[in-house]
Amino acid sequence: MKDVQRQTRTYLMSLFQQHGMNPRGDLGQNFLIDVNLIEFVVRNAELGPRDVALEVGTGTGGMTAFLAREAGHVISVDIDKNMSVLAAAAVQGCHNVTLVNRDILKNKNTLAPEITDLIRQKVAERPHGRLKLVANLPYSVGTPVISNLIASDLPWDRMVCTIQWELAEKMAAEGPGRHYAALSAWIQSQASVRILRKLGPNVFWPRPKVDSAIVSIWRDSAAAERIHDRRFFQDFLRRIFSQRRKHLRSVLSGMYRKQLDKPHVDQLLVELSLNADQRAELMQVAELISLSNALRNTIQQRGLEPDTDTDPETDTDHESSGNCEPDTDSDTDT
What is the pLDDT of residue 312? Predict the structure, then answer.
């Protein structure tokens, strides 16, 4: 395989000028130009021959080429066809790279089935194959990509990504506090999160207006087994954190009013030793899991199905290439 071209700011400016192109602000294209940081991301992913590396936001292929040197196979996805052309040149001769020119998401709650099918195929081709997300993630899709990958049945093992600093704080928030949200509980119920490094705008070209972070997320299958119904739990978190400052009894009575009356809710809270006046934002992850499991079991025992706010067919209006301006994730995004 040929040597990797180190895509510095000077190189990228020349490359874009040569092709008569400019980074597209509407797609939020901000490229990681510190090669040491690219190598840091790839190194922390601990890739090997059994790994399929998923990269979202291929860009000009600066990280893709480094991934190809370490992983068994690389699937790199970008929505911008111009970037796919530039990336193809950067990874020419890398026979273990598949470039995909499309949106990684079918909608906000679902990864594109064409991508998940391709991932399964490539993982199945490798003995004891596993998936790792390694990417300079576009800010606009940071939450849905990570959240939906965790929700999927894909055999992911680790994620090492650059994301918006504010989102990293939310993902890593340990217990109730200013950054603690539905996303915090969703990720930490099934994985461990660590912020590896904070990044200033100067390591990207063009520069974004906010700080970024490199985060490492690794799967905790034993922890995930505590959740009886992950789809129910994900919806439960979205809904309960949308009313995070209201009293628990009132929130639950409203959320499941078609399945449970207030005496049922009161009994459930007593059984779990939860205060009816407690607020969702002050509950630990383990408490949220126990409450979700108890709610689901109680509803099932009554022969009913829960109402959910999840609409998997809702289309998204995002763009998913490069990094963009600040993420507007709400407390309810998971």
Answer: 38
φ/ψ of 6, rounded to 5, equals: -85, 110
- pLDDT, tens digit, for every residue of 172-226? 998 788 899 999 999 999 999 999 999 999 999 999 999 999 999 999 999 999 9
**Measured distance CA(137)–CA(217) in Å, rounded:** 14
- Amino acid identity, residue 43? R
Question: What is the identity of the amino acid at 86?
Answer: L
User: Which residues, at least 6 apart from 241, have a Cβ–Cβ distance to it below 8 Å?
Assistant: 181, 182, 185, 280, 281, 331, 332
d(C-alpha 154, C-alpha 330), whole Å: 26
CA distances (Å), origin 289, targets 99, 111, 179, 234, 326: 38, 24, 19, 10, 30
Please, which pLDDT band fits residue 332 given cuts at 50, 70 and 90?
low
Q: Which tokens hold the place of 55? A: 């990269």
Kindly list the distances between the CA atom of residue 48 and the CA atoms of 42, 44, 69, 74, in Å, as whole numbers in the listed order: 11, 12, 9, 11
Greater confidence, 257 or 329?
Answer: 257
Q: What secondary structure does DSSP assign to 232-244, as a single string?
A: HHHHHHHHHHTTT
Q: Where are the alpha helices (DSSP H) in the chain?
A: 9-18, 35-45, 64-70, 81-90, 113-124, 142-151, 165-172, 182-188, 221-224, 230-241, 248-255, 262-271, 285-301
DSSP 218: E
> What is the set of domains in the chain, with CATH numbers?
9-224 (3.40.50.150), 230-301 (1.10.8.100)
pTM of the model: 0.90
Residues 95-115 have a mean pLDDT of: 97
